[in-house]
Amino acid sequence: MATSVATRKAKPARMLAFAASPTFALMAGIDTSTASHAAMCAAGSGPLPIGGMTVMYLLMSLFHLSPWLTLASGRRQARA
Q1: How crowded is residue 46: how many other Cβ atoms within 10 Å of its Cβ?
Q2: Tens digits of residue pLDDT in 50-76
Q3: CA 43 to chain CA mean position, Å
Q4: What is the pTM of this model?
């Protein structure tokens, strides 16, 4: 019976792993759309029209992409 309890507790944690990447991508999109356009036109603002937080959100989205890549590859994770 302890195995079934452990399995039931592990399933939400595995499903939560799928939420991180889309959430960070959404946050990057929101940050880009709400960025101050005056700051982008300032001298020395850089070659890309995105701020530091947008870059951070995009990187976090990429770092948390592994559950989606595993799902897309068709491999199944071993259950503990």
Answers
A1: 10
A2: 778 888 999 999 999 999 999 899 876
A3: 31
A4: 0.65
